[in-house]
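Run log, item B.
One chain of 333 residues. Sequence copied directly from the ordering sheet:
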Amino acid sequence: MIVLGIETSCDETAVAVLQDGGEILANLIYSQTGLHARYGGVMPEAASRDHLRKLPGLLDEALAAAGIGWGEIALVGVTYGPGLVGPLLVGMAHAAGVAVACNVPLVGVNHLAAHLFAHKLSEPAIDPPFLGLIVSGGHTLLVVVPRWGEYKVVGGTRDDAAGEALDKVGRLLGLGYPAGPRMDELARDGDPTAIPFPRPMIESGLDMSFAGLKTAAVYWLRDRPKTSIPDLCASYLEAVVDVLAEKAVRAARRLSLDRIVVVGGVAANRRLREVLPQRANERGIMVSYPPAALCTDNAAIVAACAHHRFTVLGYPGALDLAPDPNLSLDGWA
């Protein structure tokens, strides 16, 4: 079965072609980073217009890269939430058009569930149950996955997502957008113990909060403007990673799960990939990360999720799909 995946939930235009839900024939991503850098963040209207410009050509490129024709597509999967409503609508309209033209089912996909399918693509032999840590610019969640297609959210951020907290402070430092990767790079040359940033809510429950940490960094910069930028980046990143690692390990132990799967854009962060496995392994918990190419928003994970939803869960697809910017993962299938 040839599955076409389309992802336009935020500022990446992505198209992928999968065979039988597991073999990636093409996985193309056009990033709008340069477009939004001038605004210091994603401008929804500009994002929508850029998706409109780039998506038709990217579809042609993906099919050519995969070596298939339009008539070979058997299923179309598309993100319908959560995300920005304008960008979502662009991808959904294109996906519906392809589904009608090819006379194939259209399957809507939850963007957060799709991120978890990065693990299924990269390590298909390792099945649930596991604890998913979804960590990106817009989302930070702890999710129990007893089986593919069943999700229970057990913790999350009460304010800023981890990636958002990194980007906001990075912008204060003049690191541009997105600032998270640049902060990670500068942190290599800094001292993670130089600044005693707080670890909000680290001792309580499974929920997280990063707004207070961001405020602490703002005040530190205000009062000490000559602080070493690498030291600040290293100390700030260490605080974020400490919270993520502590909460993930606590959740896995509390729920008797022996594997943590880390997905989303921040899953590519160097320091998180160093700290979390070390702390988890000390407690007999394994940690899995997909390759960096599957951490970012991409359409291969959307196609994989759509394939599973259609072939295993029996969802027939629907052309009257509506965007849901606030779509929850809890209980979604």
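Observations after the first pass:
- The mean pLDDT is 94.
- Strands lie at 2-7, 12-19, 23-31, 75-81, 106-110, 130-135, 140-147, 150-156, 259-263, 286-288.
Flagged for discussion on Thursday.
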